[in-house]
TrEMBL record:
The keyword S-adenosyl-L-methionine applies. This is Precorrin-6A synthase [deacetylating]. It catalyses: precorrin-5 + S-adenosyl-L-methionine + H2O = precorrin-6A + acetate + S-adenosyl-L-homocysteine + 2 H(+). Keywords: Cobalamin biosynthesis, Methyltransferase, S-adenosyl-L-methionine, Transferase. Pathway: Cofactor biosynthesis; adenosylcobalamin biosynthesis.
Length: 257
């Protein structure tokens, strides 16, 4: 039976590759590298650098595919579902047309496949279609969350307190009720600017794990504008940006004891 290996490759530093991920890379017969145009060529280039450094299986073929553009009309959820189905079609055609029986397809996933990544959901679309039988194996990877906390030298959670992991879109709709600490990913709207607590602190990072890494921290009220300006300049310089940040609001007296 064919197999799909979903391999977490870390937050952008090739040295984030685990021994398990390197071994998985070398079990693949075909590796798919997504491309997102000239502006995000760096994302594909890191994957190619990883292959250059760690791939020893000379018979493995590396294939590029252009990531479909997610439509902006209609609801956000419908747009995402249609986008996933389009990518699932690419995976399915690769399994059917590029792999023989008992061969393995490797998907190189930024960060970790289990955290704010849709690859596993897309693979399930392929399985649901039922046109090709395959097994799935998932290899965990270092996330931007880990890289952010390591870069700032902080623990993710406070003693006895939960952390809400959410998106910028959700944070912009209001602070989560379940936690005083929010770890925010996929923020295209700079939602940190909507947090009005004067005592809130932020630890922000962009291009985590890469040579372009930027780290800023402090009272949110004091550095929100600095983050906004830094983010804009970095996006203009590189053509894209991926940032992650942790915001902590003061815990109540009954919390964090």
């Amino acid at each position: 039976m064919r197999k799909i290996l979903v391999i977490g490759i870390g937050a952008g530093n090739p040295e984030h590759m685990t021994v398990q991920a390197i071994k998985a890379l070398n079990r693949a017969d075909v590796l798919l590298i997504p491309t997102k145009g000239a502006e995000k060529a760096y994302l594909a280039d890191v994957r190619r650098e990883i292959c250059d450094r760690f791939l020893e299986n000379s018979s493995c073929r590396i294939l590029d595919y252009a990531v479909p553009v997610r439509r902006a009309d209609g609801t956000y959820e419908d747009g995402v579902h249609d986008w996933h189905r389009a990518i699932a079609g690419i995976y399915e055609r690769t399994l059917l047309n590029e792999l023989g029986e008992n061969q393995t397809l490797g998907l190189l996933v930024w960060g970790d496949p289990m955290l704010y990544d849709s690859t596993l959901r897309i693979v399930e679309h392929v399985r649901t279609a039922g046109n090709v039988a395959f097994e799935t194996e998932v290899i965990p990877g270092i996330t931007s969350v880990q890289a952010l906390c390591a870069g700032h030298g902080i623990a993710l959670n406070r003693i006895g307190l939960p952390v809400e992991i959410t998106t910028g879109r959700r944070l912009s709709e209001g602070w989560p009720e379940s936690s005083r600490d929010a770890l925010v990913m996929l923020d295209g709207v700079q939602a940190f600017r909507t947090v009005e607590d004067p005592e809130a602190e932020i630890w922000w990072g962009a291009y985590l794990g890469t040579p372009h890494e930027i780290l800023l921290s402090g009272k949110l009220a004091d550095i929100a504008e600095t983050i906004t300006e830094t983010r804009a300049k970095a996006r203009e310089a590189h053509g894209w940006i991926m940032d992650t940040y942790l915001i902590r609001r003061p815990a109540g007296e009954e919390e964090g004891a």
